[in-house]
DNA sequence: TCTGGGGTCCTAGGACCC
DNA sequence: TCTGGGGTCCTAGGACCC
């Protein structure tokens, strides 16, 4: 039996989440900003119609946003993550196998379902169920490979006449769509590849699908070869239901304002290392390598630049906040230089082992903190309960470097005092 | 004044080994 | 005149994704 995938993708997800709890914004353009209110990362249909581009820095379009009465929101990740979980749980009820691909997308395995009902009808049912239970609109693309399902979804979004569902299992229909789509819309083709492909005369998705896979592999990469095969309906990417274990954990932020002093930087590094340690414990892993990095503003050519990224191996892999923070601070002390205006910093953990499986060498036994595990568990429990927040003093209390979120909406669905009240 | 954050995979090249 | 070959491991960098 040949495989059938569906890609379900939420429409303008972040902007839609904001509008769910603000019915007064119906018909008004909405944009959502990145962390630190830096650039635009999501737009409602109305905002797109105004020609506002994805990824533009806010300061470049500030006037324009005001002129057109655009509602502007800081990223409210807690809200989006919670709405996402609701959408995904509905998909999991409808399809036997689901791969949650990102916060607003999921692949479904529909293999064999067409013997029970038409794929189109199934897609419509998904839209209807998700819409009814969450208020979020989705589009559905259906095809024999993930890459084609992505393109089908793109078509469902672009052409309203499709009713938000495109079944691309028919090869002739595939060819017709591929001819219409520029090659840059194909999953896996970014800016660089697009440039190279176009100079080679490959402009549409159909041009790429018609290329010889072998020579694409020689001239480009194995990845693009796979894309060519996928575009021809040969499924090379399987559904991955089980989230793969993380290979690295990064915690980094741009600062709300430039940092020039060691003390503030130390606070920030402590905070990021603590957060990274928390994520590591959630993954049930211990890490053997920790790196930090500092960044000045590379966009400002007039400013002196300094971007160190030292890294250290831990004597024994650990998930203990105190050990990770201490290592991060040691690295910071060694690479810190006065006289720069730092814009961003981060902490990265790599080289993971499953908790409890690492074999320490003979000379290191006993190096582990005896009550470490219990203490970390207590910290995590308190911090996840919503009743309080415990942290190491090193990360500071004022945090003048904290990111800006001037237009943050309430945590409607995840904090008791923010629940909307109906009067 | 002002430009996100968090990931993955692949490849090339150097170090090192026999 | 001539300067092996094959393998592994690690890291850095590039490209992509949302």
TrEMBL record:
Domain UmuC: 5-190
Domain of life: Bacteria
InterPro entries assigned: DNA/RNA_pol_sf, DNA_pol_Y-fam_lit_finger_sf, DNA_pol_Y-fam_little_finger, DNA_polymerase-Y, DUF4113, Rev_trsase/Diguanyl_cyclase, UmuC
Keyword set, alphabetical order: DNA damage, DNA repair, SOS mutagenesis, SOS response
Coiled coil: none
Pfam families (UniProt xref): DUF4113, IMS, IMS_C
Family of the protein in this entry: Belongs to the DNA polymerase type-Y family.
PANTHER family registered for this protein in UniProt: DNA REPAIR POLYMERASE UMUC / TRANSFERASE FAMILY MEMBER, PROTEIN UMUC
Name of the protein: DNA polymerase V
Protein species of origin: Marinobacterium sediminicola
């Amino acid at each position: 039996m040949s495989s059938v995938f569906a890609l379900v993708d939420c429409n303008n997800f972040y902007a839609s989440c904001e509008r769910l709890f603000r019915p007064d914004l119906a018909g008004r353009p909405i944009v959502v900003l990145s962390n630190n209110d830096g650039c635009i990362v999501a737009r409602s249909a109305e905002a797109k119609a105004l020609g506002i581009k994805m990824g533009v820095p806010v300061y470049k379009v500030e006037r324009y946003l005001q002129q057109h009465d655009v509602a502007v929101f800081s990223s409210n990740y807690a809200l989006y993550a919670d709405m996402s979980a609701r959408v995904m749980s509905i998909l999991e009820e409808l399809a036997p196998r689901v791969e949650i691909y990102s916060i607003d997308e999921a692949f479904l395995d529909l293999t064999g379902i067409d013997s029970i009902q038409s794929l189109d009808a199934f897609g419509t049912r998904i839209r209807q169920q998700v819409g009814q239970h969450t208020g979020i609109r989705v589009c559905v693309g259906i095809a024999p490979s993930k890459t084609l399902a992505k393109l089908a979804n793109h078509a469902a979004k672009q052409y309203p006449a499709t009713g938000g569902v495109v079944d691309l299992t028919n090869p002739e229909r595939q060819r017709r769509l591929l001819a219409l789509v520029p090659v840059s819309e194909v999953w896996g083709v970014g800016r660089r590849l697009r440039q190279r492909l176009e100079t080679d005369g490959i402009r549409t998705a159909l041009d790429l699908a018609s290329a010889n896979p072998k020579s694409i592999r020689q001239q480009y990469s194995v990845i693009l070869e796979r894309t060519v095969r996928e575009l021809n309906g040969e499924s090379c990417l399987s559904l991955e239901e089980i989230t793969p274990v993380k290979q690295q954990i990064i915690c980094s932020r741009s600062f709300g304002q430039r940092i020039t002093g060691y003390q503030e930087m130390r606070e920030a590094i402590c905070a990021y290392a603590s957060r990274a340690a928390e994520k590591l414990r959630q993954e049930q892993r211990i890490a053997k390598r920790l790196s930090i990095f500092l960044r000045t503003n590379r966009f400002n050519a007039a400013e002196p630049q300094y971007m160190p990224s030292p890294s250290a191996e831990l004597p024994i892999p650990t998930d203990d906040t105190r050990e990770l923070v201490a290592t991060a601070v040691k690295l910071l002390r060694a690479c810190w230089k006065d006289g720069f205006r730092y814009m961003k910093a981060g902490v990265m953990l790599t080289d993971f082992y499953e908790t409890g499986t690492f074999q320490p060498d003979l000379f290191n036994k006993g190096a582990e903190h005896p009550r470490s595990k219990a203490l970390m568990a207590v910290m995590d429990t308190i911090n996840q309960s919503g009743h309080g927040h415990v942290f190491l003093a090193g990360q500071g209390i004022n945090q003048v470097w904290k990111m800006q979120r001037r237009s943050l909406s309430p945590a409607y669905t995840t904090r008791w005092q923010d629940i909307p009240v109906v009067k």
